[in-house]
Design a protein that fits this description.
single chain; mainly alpha
Length: about 240
């Protein structure tokens, strides 16, 4: 029912936009620089060759390495330590209004001539929150009791997640504002798609690598099983 309802909402709103929204012809450039798929890709490669674009792509491809493990693994580790999945899912509910309000607030600071200032100011705080998430995972078994986890533990988790959302959206809105600012209006779609794709890739590949490295980098102790290091999943199972 939930999926059906929102599917219907998407269909209705998209149809209304298609029917009622009119383009402002005065703002449309008289001459488009691309006429087809071949021209678009040729233009795309010429953009990528620009030294400034190459440097920027390198920046956003590597800028999220520092918090990839905290973002990708924290929730899984909390579940591993006994925090119920349904409780973690419920903790995401208070984040929804925050996620709606944050872009509106942050956009005031990214609308100026240097939107990336917000990006690099938020980065050290997001890195520190990675340590906070590690502390939450370490703390979980310490406060766990027969009835589950105390309310104050969940309160700290919610507060940590809220602070994390602030830093996350500060960086996200800043990078989107910068991409929009530097994109040539004549080829805005091609330019912004390239930068946004690289930005998304810069967030996805470190998380994938972090998840892949969890098992090799996790140290386990075997109790009552001699000559087993628990280094592999098979050994840990034994």
């Amino acid at each position: 029912d939930f999926l059906f309802f929102w599917g219907a909402v998407f269909l209705v709103t998209t149809t209304l936009v298609a029917l009622l929204k009119k383009e402002n012809k005065e703002l449309i450039p008289a001459k488009e620089e691309t006429k087809g798929i071949t021209d678009t890709y040729r233009l795309l490669f010429s953009i990528i060759k620009m030294p400034a674009v190459l440097t920027f792509c390198l920046l956003i491809l590597t800028s999220k390495v520092g918090f990839s493990a905290a973002d990708a693994v924290t929730g899984l580790k909390l579940v591993e330590e006994g925090v119920p999945k349904e409780h973690l899912a419920l903790l995401a509910v208070p984040m929804v209004p925050l996620q709606i309000i944050l872009p509106l607030l942050i956009s005031k600071y990214t609308a100026g001539p240097q939107p990336l200032n917000t990006f690099y100011k938020a980065m050290p705080f997001r890195l520190l929150l990675g340590l906070e998430f590690a502390f939450l995972v370490w703390w979980a078994p310490k406060v766990k009791h027969e009835g589950g986890f105390p309310v104050y533990y969940y309160a700290v988790v919610v507060l940590s997640y809220a602070l994390h959302q602030i830093t996350l959206y500060s960086m996200y809105v800043a990078i989107m504002a910068f991409n929009a600012k530097v994109s040539d209006p004549l080829i805005g779609g091609t330019y912004m798609t390239l930068l946004n794709t690289v930005s998304n890739l810069g967030g996805n590949w470190p998380s994938t690598v972090a998840l892949w490295l969890v098992d090799p980098l996790t140290v386990k102790e075997c109790v009552g099983a001699q000559q087993h290091t628990c280094a592999t999943a098979a050994a840990a199972e034994v």
